[in-house]
Amino acid sequence: MVHNTQIRVYYEDTDMGGVVYYANYLKFLERGRSDAVREAGISQLEMRDAGLVFVVRRVEADYLRPARFEDLLRVQTTLEDMRGARFTMPQSVWRGDEKLLDARIDCAVMDMSGRAARLPAEIRRKLAVFMG
Questions:
Q1: Annotated catalytic sites, by residue?
Q2: Stated pTM of the model
Q3: At the topology level of CATH, where does 3-130 sit?
Q4: Scanning 28, 53, 54, 75, which has the fewest C-beta atoms within 10 Å of its C-beta?
Q5: Residues 26, 19: contact at Cβ < 8 Å?
Q6: Dist. CA 11–CA 36, nearest whole Å
């Protein structure tokens, strides 16, 4: 299943040329992942209360075309791979039918002391809905 999140580009997201500043795409991708996880029925607040958090351990991004002020974007999120304590979420940003960015985000689960922790079976089961 592919998860889609709509993002509007605001003035604050752009640089002096009116183009989305490259680092702001990371915020857009984070919103897409957060919405996908929430839609899968995973509460990150409950995870944190149980002593676990998701973290990003690697980002690979290809910027293909610029987004601009007032664009309505779509962030697509899927799940490619799940292992003991980590998973990979391919994401892309679209303006209509035009792909603007391709990314692969490697995420991990950590306990509150900063050590890697295994994905709990319930979270693994809920995330699996996005395996493509």
A1: 15
A2: 0.94
A3: Thiol Ester Dehydrase; Chain A (3.10.129)
A4: 53
A5: no
A6: 25
